[in-house]
Amino acid sequence: MKPVLPLAVLFLLTTSAFSRLGETREQTEVRYGLPKRELSAGTRLTLIEGALELSFKFEGWIIRCALLPATDGREYIVKEEYRKDPAFVVRNRQNPTWILDEERDAVLNAQAASDGWHLKTVGQPETDPLQVAVNQLGRSHSLSGNLLVRSDRAIGQVAWDHITLSLPQAFSYEAQIAAIKQQKAKSALPKF
Asked: Which residues contact 88 (CB under 8 A, 6 or more apart)?
């Protein structure tokens, strides 16, 4: 059984008009054109196991989007990865494939929602509930270093060659999948 995003999630996903996270496939296709590749559940190296994944090429970038179904029957983007297209970089003799500060800022500003991104450091003990959640999330998903967090609890990770942005629903879904796998593994153990 595949988990479905609750109805409350649908409301949260559609409240920010400027955010690409939370858009539907149709909205994303208007923005970036038709996907260059579609990966279905079970494909290796997906952003989220079991999610539909679309890959777009847009102005020298490869944008991978993981979509999960909501209770309204539509699929929404809950995780995205931005990476420079190496072929485009070579063909156009442009900047190297690592992401420059101004490129990182352009991606984050496009995904800023109402109040932008705020830097949080994983592992710092604090009483702030959001910081505690980020710390727990970081430990449970092997994240380390600095994370970017939005007010809707979306999380951004910036590396030298890619930017990954996730809604909390992506982590919830992954936790549900892990629990289902763990339950199946337990039930498969011999009954001695």
From this structure: 57, 60, 61, 94
